[in-house]
Amino acid sequence: MIGLASLGQSLKSRYFSSFEYPEYRKLWLATLCSQSAAWALIVARAAFILDLTGSSTWTGAVIFAAMIPSVLVSPLAGYLADRFDRRTVLACAYAVNVVDNLILAILVATGVAQPWQVLVLSAVTGSARSTQMPAAQALLANMVSREGILNAVSLYQATVQGSRFSGPFLILVVIWATGHQNWVFFLCAAMYVLGLFAVLSIRTVSRGVVQAGRFGEIFLSNLMAGLSYMYHHPLIVSLILLVVAHCGMTMSFESLFPVLVLDKLDAGDGAGIMAGFSNLMVGYGLAALVTALSLAGVRSQAARGRLLLWLGIFSGIAPVVLAMAPNMPLAIAAAAGMGASQGGFMTLSHAMIQTIAPDAIRGRLLGVYNWHTNGFMASFNLVNGVLAGLGALNAPIILAASGIGFVVVVILSFARVPLRQLYARGVPAT
User: What string of DSSP letters covers 122-157?
Assistant: First the structure.
């Protein structure tokens, strides 16, 4: 018994040490609720709009509308996260999503939802989420010690990656219990309500440092401060550009999965598309969660660097395997491979950026980071949705070509000295 207790304590201190901080636990729970709702929405809206319109282009457009606000909102969100109390920024973002999701749920339940309405509400959701993420990420670093940032970010990323499992899994439960998809949208609103209550209980005061002056001047100067810091830091700019390529080429699959389910895996339509898409996302998210939790215990900088390299390579290989899968069980296994590699890559890269970033500019830097990554994911989802509707291309071909392309990018990244050193030694001590 003593041995088991000692083992449990050792695992807790290594993998879950950040949970010793009560404020961090609140933020983690809020993020789990909101991210689960966000990924349930991505699946539910895509399946709903594909069933409503029969168009992969509309599917890509709705996902694009949910993600593209990051291009416009993230820089402003980074400024807000440094200018105001980050708790207040978070609470406002959660409240907007509660209202937005209730409106969508009512429109779907009453049968009056139109494609343009789903498009507009998706943009509102994306704007609030883009405001939430830099504030939460910047607040996180003030809740734990600097030595604990990797563990805190890994556990935070476990909610981001694991929500790809929990959100779609809850969809499957709702469809099994009710027989159709309408209640899924009410579920999403309820999860945002739970997240809002958790955020309102946070007491940690956190804000950055911004210069005084008129808003327009302040916003532009602080946006330029985030951009300038990013593009003048050789390691950060090299790492972020690699992550941007990763997001655009391997992680812009949301507009392809429902088309893949409909055309290749014979899931039917309506609730069948939503259930099939959810099954793929459950496999993806569960593997991503396990990987993120495992990385929380990796303490060697050199090991982190090597893992980043190999996870990047496997991130490109896994979509090729999914493209060749002939049935749903094998497709779920391939999606799990994507989740393990892509989730691990994003967890490590984000933790490395958080470790390097100074707190005074953290919010603006993370806003610029989200601006780049989410902007490319949004754009590539729209492009993929349009391409999937063309006669010469289909979802498997696009998945495979994009995966192979990213493997080539990783190989070429050795030409960048900072990345070559990162793969060998990890993040420098200073």
Answer: HHHHHHHHHHHHHHHHHHHTTTS-GGGHHHHHHHHH
Count of positions (residues) in the chain: 430
CATH number, domain of 391, equals: 1.20.1250.20
**309: domain range?**
19-425
Q: Please report whether residue 11 resides in a domain.
A: no
Asked whether residue 9 is assigned to any structural domain, the reply reads: no
SS3 string of 25-36? Answer: HHHHHHHHHHHH
Distance CA 357, CA 76 (A): 18
Is the pTM for the entire model greater than 0.85? no
Between CA 318 and CA 322 the distance in angstroms is 6
**pLDDT score recorded for residue 300:** 83
Stronger pLDDT, 389 or 228, i.e. the higher one: 228
**Comparison of pLDDT for 5 and 87, the residue scoring more:** 87
Do residues 207 and 83 touch, judged by C-beta distance below 8 A? yes
Per the structure, how many domains does the chain have?
1
**CA torsion through residues 105, 106, 111, 114, sign:** negative
What's the mean pLDDT in 351-362? 80
- The tokens of 359 are what? 């707190």
| Residue ranges in 357-427 assigned as alpha helix (H) | 362-388, 395-412, 417-425
Give phi and psi for 345, each to the nearest 5: -60, -45
